[in-house]
Amino acid sequence: MTRLRTLPLTAALTAALLVTGSAAAAPAVPAPRAAAADGGPAVTGFALGGATHRLVAREAHALTTLTVAGVSITADGRGVIRPDAGTRRLAGTARREGLRSELLVSNYSNRLGDFDARAASRLLGSRANIERVARRLAGLVAAQGWGGVNVDLELVPRRRAAGLVRLVRRLQALMPAARTVSVDVSASTSLAAYRSHGYRLGDLGRSADVVVLMTYDFHGPAWSGPGPVGPLRWQRQALRAALKAVPAERLDLGVAGYGYTWPRRGTGRTVSVAGARRLVRRDGARAVWHPRSGEWSARLSNGTVLWWSDARSWRLRARLVSELGVHGLALWRLGSADPLP
Hints:
By secondary structure, the protein is α/β, with parallel strands linked by helices. The protein has a single domain, classed as TIM Barrel. Helices cover 32% and strands 21% of the residues. Helix 4 (127-144) runs parallel beside helix 5 and helix 8 (232-242) runs parallel beside helix 10 (311-324). The longest helix is centred in the middle third of the chain and has 18 residues, at 127-144. Residues 3-26 have low confidence and may be disordered.
C-alpha cells in the first residue's frame, strides 16, 4: 500500500467482538499454487474491497492469489473493524475463479488519511492486543472462507519489531495449515535499514508463508520531488538485501500499477495507468520511457510532471523475479494497473 491511497475502510473506529468460527464449516479454499498456470512465478493481485467480480474475472488468468484490502485495526490497537459486504463477497469471487484469497489487515486510518503509527504501536506493544486481533482475524478467515491473512502494518516503530513477528506467528498457530499468512514490508536496501523500520526479516521469513517487498513509493508528491515510483535499480537492491535473510521461495516483489502527479502548485495525487495516459493525450504532451528506471514520465503544458509504472514496467519486474529466482510478484493494484498479460 502507498501513502497517498484512500481505502474504502469503515471510517468509524469501533471495537469489535471476537469472532469464533469452525474451519471445518468454512467454504473450501483452493489448494495453494506455487506458480502461475504457465509455470512462471506466482502472482498476487491486490484489490480494494469495492472491486467488482468482472475486474477479478478479467485478471484471474494471470493470478494465483487475490489479496483484498478490506479491514483495519482499531485506533486503540485492540480490535479489527468488520469487513463490509463488498469485501466479504470477494472471498467468494476468488473461490469461483479458482484463486486463493487473503484478507488484508492494515493500520490505515481514514480519519488521518494515512497509516496510524500509534495504532500499530498499541497493537504490537501488547501481547493481549496481539492475541485479540489474531483471534479476530482467524475467526473472520474461518467464517467467511478466506484463504489466509495479509498483514500490512506500516510505520512500525523499531521497538515493536518483535510484536510484528509475534502477530504473524499467532495467526499461523490459530489457523489451519492450509491457510496462509503473508506480511508486507516497506523496501530498504540493507538489513540494517530493514531493522530500523521495524522489520526483523529473518524472523518474518521463518514465520510468514510469504514476505512481500513493497518496492514502490520511492518518489511521491507528498514526500519528494518528481521521480520514478519504483526504480528498477532500487528494486533489485532491495531484493538482494532481503534475500540475505528471507529464502527466495518466500519472497515476492511488490510492483506499482499506478503513478503520481507533481503540479507546480499544491500537492499531487495518485493516478491510474489509464488516467496518466489520458492526461498526457488530452494535453498533447509526449510520454518518455526511461529504460534504467523502467517507468514512464511526461511534463504537461501547465508544468505538471507525471511518472507511472505500466505493463511494460511489469514485464521488466517479472524478468527480475525470474532472474533472482524469487517466489513471485504482487501488484498494487487491480483496477489501477494495466490488465495483466
